[in-house]
Structures are given as C-alpha cells and as structure tokens.
Amino acid sequence: MKEIGELQLPDDVRYAEDHEWVRSEGEKTRVGISDYAQDQLGDIVYVELPQVGVTFDKGEEFGTVESVKAVAEFYMPIGGEILGVNTALEKSPELVNKSPYGDGWLIEVKPADSAELDALMTRDVYLETLKGIE
Amino acid sequence: MRYLPHTDEEIASMLQAVGKNNLGELFSTVPEDCRYTGTLNLPEPLTEWELNDLMGALSGTMAASPEYTVFVGAGSYEHYIPESVSYLLSRSEFVTSYTPYQAEMSQGTLQAIYEYQTLAARLLGMEVANASLYDGASALAEALLMAIRITRKNAVGISSLVHPHYRRVVQTYFEPTGHQVLELPRLENGGTDLSPIHGIDNLAAVAVQSPNFLGCIEDLRVIGERAHDKGALFVTCFTEPLAYGLIKNPGGQGADIACGEGQSLGIPQSFGGPGLGMFASKMEYVRSMPGRLVGQTKDLEGKRGFVLTLATREQHIRRDKATSNICTNNSLCALAAAMYMASVGGTGIRELASLNHDKSEYLKQELQKAGFKIAFTTPTFNEFVVEFPRGFDVTYQRLLEKKTVAGLSLAPFYPDLANHYLLCVTETRSKEDMDALVREVTS
Questions:
Q1: Which of A15, A19, B339, B434 is an S-S bond match for B85, by CB 3.0 to 4.6 Å?
Q2: Closest partner residue to A46 among B152, B287, B318, by Cβ?
C-alpha cells in the first residue's frame, strides 16, 4: 500500500468524498477513481459500468468494482447523463490500477448542474481528508 | 469434512473461554423483543419404534413404486439408480459435506463439485454450470431474475407448458418485485405459442421447458431466435435432463441460460424432494449467475487445486447487492448426479435415453391401436398425453386398487384438458407392465 506522499494527486481534477475524481473537458466531464482508491482496492479484476443515456443524481451508485480482496460501488460525484463508458475496462480492468487518471477512466457525464462541480474538493483539500483517514 | 456435535462439556468449556455462564448470556446481545420466549408448538418426542410406525403409516397413504406400477412422471421420474452411486454417496466425507469455504481442508468436496459442474455443463451443452441450486423451480425463478439483471428490462414471457409448480414458484419470487410475467399459451400441436411477445417492449427473457409439461419437445432453435430478435435472453428449463441423451441439448440451440431439475440423475424420488437445481449459462453472463461456483486453480507449488471462485457475486460478501440470496448448494444431490453421470457415462446416457423414448413410444402406439387419442402431434421423449373417454376416472380408480397409477389427470392444471392424462414410461417399466395397462384400460 502506498504512503500518502507516494500518491499521485493531479490538480487538474476535482475529488469527491467517495474517492472519485472529475475532470472538465468542455461539454462533458470525465469520472474515475483516485490513486488512493485504486491502491486501497488492490488488483482490480472486474468493472461494471452503466448504460449510456441513463441519468443519475449526485451520490447515486453507477457501477461496481471488484478487486481480488473487495467489492465496492462507484457513486456519482456529480449528477448527470452518462455520455460514454470506458469499454476498454471490460477486457482490461487493470487499467484502473495502472492509470487511474488516464486510460483507467470510468465514465463521461453531461453535468446536470455545474455548481455540483465547483463544490468538489481541490487536490489540497482532498489530500487533507486523506491525512485524516490515515 | 466431518460434522461432530458438541458435548455438554465442550459447550461449558467454550462458554468459560468467552466468560459466559450459559447460552442465554451468550445471546444477550440479541434484543429482548427479538427473542422468542414461549414454548414451541411441537408434538411430543417419539421413540424410534413409534416414529417408524408413524412414517410407515404415512407412506402407506401414498401410491409409490415398487409397490405400485406408476405411469406418472410430471417432474419426478422413476429411474434405476446404480448401486455404485448409493455406495459412494453414503461415504461419510460426502454425507456430512458442509459448505466448503476452506480450500485448505476441502479439496475432495471441491473437486467433486467441480466435476459435477463439468458434467452438468456438458450434458446441457453450456459453457459454465454452477454448483447447483435447490430444485428445478427455484432454478427457473433465479434464471429469470438473472435475465432481468443482465438485460435491465423487467418483463418475462414464460410458457404455460412449463411445469405448473415451477410457474407458481416464479410467481412467488416475482410478486414483490413488480416485474411483469406474461404467460405464453399452448399451440394446437402441444408446443408454445410465442405470438404474445410481439406486443412487449421490455422483454428480458423468454422461458420454455423442453420436453414441456405435456411431454412435447419444443423447437428450441426457433423459439431462441425469436427471443433474441426481441432483445431478450433465451431461458430453457427442463424436468427430465435424461432427454438430452437423445434430443439436442439447450446450449446447441441457442440457450443463454439452461436450468431445471436434476432428480432423474441418480436421486431417489423421495415423495418429491430433495431435488437438484441444475443451472448453466453462457460464460459471458457468469458474473450475473446466482449460487456457488468452484474453479480449478494451482496452489503455491504449482499443483492442481480447487477453490470457490467468483464469490463476490454472493450474499456473504455482497450482502444486499448479491446476485441472489442463494448462498449454498444442494451438494449431496449434486454429487449423486455427478456420480450417476460418471457411472452411466456418455454412451450409457444415450442408451438409457433411447430406452425411455422407445418404451414410451411403444405404449403410445399400443394405446393408439386400442382406439385412444394421442392428444398432440409433436414428438415426445418419455411422456405423452392421452385423451381417454369420459368416465375414465372410474377405470383409473379400479386400476389404483390394483396398484397401478394410470398417469396424471391434467384437468386440475389445464381446465380445457379434461379427460386428458399425462403418461410416463421410463426404463423401469417393462413390456408386461405396459401390456397390462392397455388390457386394463380397454376392458
């Protein structure tokens, strides 16, 4: 398991309490899980993602992740419609471990309310909450 | 794995170890209002000889083989069980088998379950079979729920020629869910009419039984194509798996999920249970499958070993998010089926299936020659429907007094099939049995 100092915590994304990240890319936003979350889960063996076109509220469960030691749910860091899912994860779920902020992204969302985006944590605030967990 | 009950002394020493004076203290964390304090409404205990008398009197009220010559199947089939199966199954390692969580000490049980899964998958022509569910009826209900999980649609079409008890179990499962159940009517020829599915948009599954409750072999390939055209999964069900020794198996005809009752494979009828819920699917749906799965793996030294796998689908890990509330299997019955399939072998299953079919055809033809109407034209396996003349119930009673059960009256299940009887002939019925039946019903 990584020490807090070893975690990759880029500052071009915002973080949610359930350890998802959100990156604005124009019209749509990408969602994944943080380096901390993938590290806690361990080797990921299966990722279940929602259907494109479905709309979820902030905080709703949108998928599940299974690692060799646990199963966990993904929760929407912001509300919105699912515009796309990372289909590469069907065959290569380990991408979430290898590249949590890159090839291991989970879903693309059309945000319902941009205020929800602004309410998410910055890198520094998220780092503080992680220190609180440890 | 052995199961040994605890002695009073062991219980006392365990209580001492955790610092409790009695069992009541041990359970003191259970809230008061959740504890039952009354006396249980149970009859007084019986001595062994009293109990034997009671059970003897109960069984005396039943018409069962070998005392009776029974021409009834309808979901429970009389087949010969090789002595080797009874012997192997009675070994204490199997009889006291417990849910084998611990691969370190359960390799024998796990391997036996793995072999059952392999044989079940081969018989059904499917890619993966689970370690078994309780019985055919609950297996079908679980299959339909699985289809709903996979397709994320919420209506199922189920043939009215699926065993009536299975359909009731499905209704019980579905009643609180709000999912829609559409019954598909019977065609003139004894097959299922699929036309009602065209009006349904959110169809998750089409389920048929083959051979169906009337004994007729459904055209699975065509039904499967029509289910898939609607974007639904194709669920096939069975009560008589021995049929697949002769007719094409579900997997070869496009089934996404195949499920049913495995009692025919070496399990005694025992007045209706325990049974064996066989359950198999395509590999792509394995993570949505209910129940236990045993997988083959390698240990640290590279030796072959067996272990419960994909357990994250299950209730003890996923809690309310589990694929089903089935957290165990019918291990002993599954092992009986594995031993039966291995003992009889592929050739044996084919020969037995032919024998069932040929004998059944003989009785069908003799009844036809004697002037009775065979109700449906569709080919059958070891069961078929005969229309007897009005007033046949008197003959039926007379035969019953002579210790012959001349089929199952279908009127209670299908009101439009008054005077229709479902007859079953397995390898256990002799030509003399059948000739005697024809003589009796014509006299």
A1: B339
A2: B287
